[in-house]
């Protein structure tokens, strides 16, 4: 029986066991996926003895993502771009690290708004944390040459732009209010709007009808940003799809089956979040 897990400190709120548990059942795989609370000071010994603990790999959540990346014996380009890992597996005796947030976000964007890439206007990213890095990297890979990062703390936006190269530039946080007029895609990666708290103050008056608006916040499923976009006729991309799709590559690495993100799985998680 293959065993995988998600590690964090604390770990109670992770939805990963529900996602991977659904797939283990669906594909009738003899395996398990558990939550394991690992203290920061124990991370190194835990990762170096994954196999001894009986695990084929794990997901990594807060606060271990950067340290897990540092400790890995092999780092996939996705984790190098972000400087953090959320998925670990063992290969040839090495601990391998990837960041699947890029895959998760871009896959859901493609599915929700296939013609998002107009190629004419910039992509606007709100926020400059790890999620913003992963998503910028996704747009770079998709061939976008003008990505503008807007962050409350301007220096972090500048650092992100410096790290990710010539296709990414830092803008002014205030520019977010008019983004629906000048951006082809707007992605909120900040925590503003989570649980209905805070407002990004994006103004949808005179929005370009082709603009696509995405939020990585998924509680509530329709954030104030997405609701404003929808009410003004824009296409929206919710945050739950990223959560579900980012789990796919890890499951495939550990259990050897590429799982499907189904409506049934989405419904299960929505019900658990009290959003259905
Ligand atoms: P993650 O790595 O998960 O993306 P993070 O590094 O904690 O998360 O980043 C959170 C993002 O939300 C940051 O861009 C943060 O802005 P700062 O860099 O200025 O802190 C943004 N954020 C959080 N609370 C905010 C608020 N009240 N107003 C504007 N931005 C906020």
Q: Would you mind describing this structure in some detail?
A:
The protein is of the alpha/beta class and 276 residues long. It contains 12 helices and 12 strands. The strands form 2 sheets. A 6-stranded mixed beta sheet has the order 2-1-3-5-6-4, sandwiched between helices. A 6-stranded parallel beta sheet has the order 9-8-7-10-11-12, sandwiched between helices. The longest helix has 12 residues, at 101-112. The structure holds 2'-monophosphoadenosine-5'-diphosphate. 2'-monophosphoadenosine-5'-diphosphate is lined by residues 127-132, 151-153, 156, 189-192, 198. 2'-monophosphoadenosine-5'-diphosphate (ATR) binds next to helix 6.
Topology:
Layout: E1 2-8, H1 16-26, E2 31-37, H2 43-48, E3 55-60, H3 65-71, E4 74-75, H4 77-82, E5 87-91, E6 94-98, H5 101-112, E7 123-126, H6 130-141, E8 147-150, H7 154-164, E9 168-170, H8 179-182, E10 185-188, E11 212-215, H9 224-231, E12 235-237, H10 240-245, H11 248-255, H12 263-272
Parallel strand pairs: 1-2, 1-3, 4-6, 7-8, 7-10, 8-9, 10-11, 11-12
Antiparallel strand pairs: 3-5, 5-6
Which consecutive residue ranges, at least 5 long each, have pLDDT under 50?
none
What percent of the residues sit in helical stretches (DSSP H or I)? 25-40%
Strands, total number: 12
Q: Give the amount of beta strand, in percent.
A: 15-25%
Structural class: alpha/beta
C-alpha end-to-end distance: 34 Å
Mean pLDDT figure? 96
What are the bound molecules? 2'-monophosphoadenosine-5'-diphosphate
Count of helical stretches: 12
Output the helix-strand order. Answer: EHEHEHEHEEHEHEHEHEEHEHHH
Strands of the widest sheet, in order across it, are 2-1-3-5-6-4
Main β-sheet, in a few words? 6 strands, mixed
Radius of gyration: 19 Å
Task: Choose one word for the global shape.
Answer: globular
């Amino acid at each position: 029986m293959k065993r995988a897990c998600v590690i964090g400190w604390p770990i109670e709120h992770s939805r990963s066991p529900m996602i991977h548990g659904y797939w283990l059942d669906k594909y009738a795989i003899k395996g398990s996926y558990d939550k394991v609370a690992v203290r920061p000071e124990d991370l190194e010994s835990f990762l170096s003895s994954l196999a001894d603990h009986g695990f084929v790999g794990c997901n990594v959540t807060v606060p271990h993502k950067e340290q897990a990346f540092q400790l890995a014996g092999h780092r996939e380009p996705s984790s190098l771009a972000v400087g953090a890992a959320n998925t670990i597996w063992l290969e040839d005796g090495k601990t391998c690290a990837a960041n699947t947030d890029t895959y998760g976000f871009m896959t859901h964007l493609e599915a929700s708004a296939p013609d998002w890439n107009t190629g004419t206007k910039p992509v606007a990213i709100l926020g400059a944390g790890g999620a913003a890095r992963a998503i910028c990297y996704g747009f770079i890979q998709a061939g976008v040459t003008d990505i503008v990062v807007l962050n409350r703390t301007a220096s972090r936006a500048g650092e992100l732009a410096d790290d990710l190269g010539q296709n990414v530039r830092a803008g002014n946080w205030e520019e977010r209010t008019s983004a629906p007029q000048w951006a082809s895609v707007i992605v909120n990666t900040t925590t503003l709007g989570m649980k209905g708290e805070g407002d990004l103050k994006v103004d949808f008056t005179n929005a370009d009808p082709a603009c696509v608006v995405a939020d990585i916040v998924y509680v509530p499923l329709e954030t104030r940003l997405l609701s404003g976009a929808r009410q003004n006729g824009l296409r929206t991309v919710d945050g739950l799809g990223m959560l579900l799709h980012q789990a796919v590559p890890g499951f495939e690495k550990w259990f050897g089956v590429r799982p499907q993100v189904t409506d049934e799985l989405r419904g299960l998680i929505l019900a658990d979040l009290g959003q259905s």
